[in-house]
Amino acid sequence: MATVETPKASTGTRLRFKINGRDSEVAVSPVERLSRVLRENLGLTGTKVGCDAGDCGACTVLLDGEPVTSCLVAAGQAEGCEVTTVEGLRARAPLFGQLQDSFLRHGAAQCGICTPGMLMAATALLEQNRTPSEDEVMDAIGGVLCRCTGYRKIIYAILKAAEEQTDVSPAAGAAVGKRLARLDGHRKIEGTEIFGGDGIPAGTLTARAIRCPYNRAGFRFGNLDAFVAAHPGIHAVLTAEDIPGENRYGVIPPFADQPVFAESEARFRGEAVAAVVGEAEAVEHLDPASFPVSWEERPALTSVEAALAADAPRIHAHREGNVLVRGRVVRGEVEKALTEADVVVEEEYETGFVEHAYIEPEAGWARRVGDGIEIEACTQSPYMDRADIARILGIPPAAVRIIPTAVGGGFGSKLDLSVQPFIAVAAWHLGKPVRMVYTRVESIVSTTKRHPARMRIRAGAGRDGRLIALDFSADFNTGAYSSWGPTVAARVPVHASGPYVVPHYRALTRAVHTNLVPAGAFRGFGVPQTAIAQEQAYDELANRLGMDRLEFRIVNALTNDTPTVTGQVLGAGVGIRACLEALRPRWKAALAEAAAFNAATRGPVRRGVGIAGMWYGCGNTSLPNPSTMRVGLKADGRIALHQGAVDIGQGSNTIVAQICADAMGAPIERFDLVSGDTAITPDCGKTSASRQTFVTGKAAQMAGAELRRAIVGLAGCCDCATIQFQDGCVTVTEGGKEHVLKLHELPLDEHGYVLTREATFDPPTQPLDADGQGIPYAVFGFGAHMAEVAVETELGTVKVLKITAAHDVGRAINPTLIEGQIEGGAAQGLGHALMEEFFPGKGENLHDYLIPTSGDMPPVESILIEDPSPIGPFGAKGIGEQAVIPTAPAILNAIHHATGVRMRRVPATPDRIRAAILAARHEKSPA
Ligand code: FES
Ligand code: FES
């Protein structure tokens, strides 16, 4: 009998299982979670943990062939059973290897954290039924959540699993535009990808934060030394006094205001005041009530209204009126123009906190190396983490090494620090490796959210349907600390017009502090909230003018030659009109279908069709935003791409390589990725603001072109020469004459390569003046979504029947990955429109906080428009945030079309829709 020994000293009952076909025995408590035994005792970290509560399905394994959530199975229950995990899938039967390959080929794995659970659920289905229907697939994966893909590519990959397909590598110089499988995809489908909670060395200590249970509270510690002494296995308690450097961090240095540990008062529920560090068992089983801290609950500001009241206390002493920052863009004479407009609408809209709900809770580990620190953790921004950790530890940035793990979804929240300061400070003091893995509840209570918004909008148009003026103002609840509040307040005024010509314009914003969880970056930096107001107001204008809602948008669409609301004339690459026109035939057909359904049906279900447009500036707003790319020719003829842009599932590892390959004229399979690590990759900036394809991609194009130039130069040839890469040599051909560079015979540079080239690209923007006029972004992405819905008017429930999404991506570097972004964005937009709202202090888990499941997602048809950017690499623009912005307003406009009610409070939950329908009926026929 083969035995798998536990890697750590174990106590408990010896339990026997058959794991992936091998007999195994472990000594554990019979009540231990099976997921934990698999991961911690058997090292099978392909099984992921997203909630430990049966809600996410990430831990799905097969128990005697049946799919189970292993976090809810006690190890004792599994004794004597056969357990199959993702690591054993390929060996189980050829079909399951094909299933994994199908996931890879069809783009079904983005971040990959849900992929093992999805594969196991699909395997259980295919064991029973080799040719399932789409509905059967959706049922089978219904218990596994995915936050990235919108499920459509997962469903498709399962349906296609039995089909044999072969992949053909593109020829040299022809990678751009190809549907290549992601280069880092094998690890995701095999379960060998290392996320923040994986790959942690045995014996690493565990840190756990002690968090404030009130919205605002003073606190006092008891005898911490006595506490440590009384708890075997606890090595230390850390508080603000233990911060070696500054007890302060923040993503925008001038606004940095968040302490690692609160000092005398905690400003939000969930803020850390201390951390306990020790052996995992001792730390995890610690009763928090035994920790010596006493709280004094204080009156808290829990709404923007309360925070703005004249007598409100200041949450930060130096921020008058609790206003963190204001944003402003003004053009023309908005008041005068509104009085002259033929039609004016005036409306208010409100949205709530939205939780990122990535399936991977924050996790990582740190170790002290001499006078430096190394951190392996999930992050979207390694260089920003490095700067903040250096400040916290009081050491130079060069002494901090950040090694990003795979990121199991980020969507903006993993731009901010989470576990990093705790593990860094603990490892620094204790001189031992320390890990921290947030629980789901901890992740929800303490990390950033989408900003709640209160928006007022007045929009005016002429009888010809042309927009004349827009007056927009909004307050964003930025919570207790600044995070990305300044970015939201600055970006929204630039975007509140939507992608339309608005001659007279005023947009004013404020980010307002409250005693609630900090709001930060979430896919769109406030623009998705803004689009909910602006696109519904435009629908109202079109309706009052008696115009078709799509044609209203086409009439007003920006062109290459018309100025934006900041006075910028883009000159080229303005593809909004093309997006809207691409939807026209489908729009007409959908309207006709909805009208026919409504005419033929007497029941409570009414159909509606909605449309919404969007634009989104790629990169920082009027701020430097560079990426640096390094590419090296190795002596064996392979090419090293030092790709520091963190791939959080969106595909930058693949897309940036495709761009660089074509810039060099080299086959993509020659590339070796050297992924983000501040010690070995240059700074590619943060993965946010839809900037990596555009900014890092451009740097990769420049570096690739320079390396090509250097190679042909080394051969004494000009740029017109052709290059062939072979093992150990490069052949450069010019005028029919071949020059063979034998790479092993050439000296190596300081990077260990025959030739290395680096290039930096910083998008050409200009500062905005006091009225917000200038060039905030070098490139915008454009798009429009059409939503078809059925509303059950007696219940208020909405079924989204289809989303059709047209996006101008400039150049589709990898259409499969772009479609994946669009489908995933549509899923998040659907959640925003219909179901997602986080109430601090309530529902801090994934069974109360609902995100779309596979059953909620309709088909998504993507239409890719390629109106090239003159600046982007091969004309490419970003797509990450663009994809989410128009979905919610398109659905809300469809609900209005179906029912006649305008949903001004989002999400449009059944109770709110039903109440709005009843109110409208009451208005029509008051008792
Ligand atoms: S970790 Fe088991 S269902 Fe989420
Ligand atoms: S790919 Fe499914 S959660 Fe990221």
Kindly list the characteristics that best describe this protein:
globular, disordered N terminus, seven-stranded mixed β-sheet
Please explain how this structure is put together.
With about 950 residues, this protein is α+β, with helices and mostly antiparallel strands. The protein contains 23 helices and 32 strands. The strands form seven sheets. The chain has a seven-stranded mixed sheet with strand order 8-10-6-17-14-15-16, sandwiched between helices. The chain has a six-stranded mixed sheet with strand order 12-20-19-18-13-32, sandwiched between helices. A hairpin with a 2-residue loop joins β26 and β27. α3 runs antiparallel to α6, α12 packs across α13 and α16 packs parallel to α22. The radius of gyration is 28 Å and the shape is globular. The N terminus is likely disordered. Bound molecules: FE2/S2 (inorganic) cluster (2 copies).
**Total DSSP E strands:** 32
Please list the strands of the largest sheet in the order they lie side by side. 8-10-6-17-14-15-16
Q: Hetero groups bound?
A: FE2/S2 (inorganic) cluster
User: How would you describe the shape?
Assistant: globular
Low-confidence stretches: 1-10
Q: What fraction, in percent, of the residue positions are helical?
A: 25-40%
Spatial gap, N to C terminus: 80 Å
Number of continuous helical runs:
23
> What is the structural class?
alpha+beta
Report mean pLDDT, rounded to a whole number. 95
**Largest sheet entry:** 7 strands, mixed
Strand proportion, as a percent range, falls in 15-25%
Radius of gyration, rounded? 28 Å
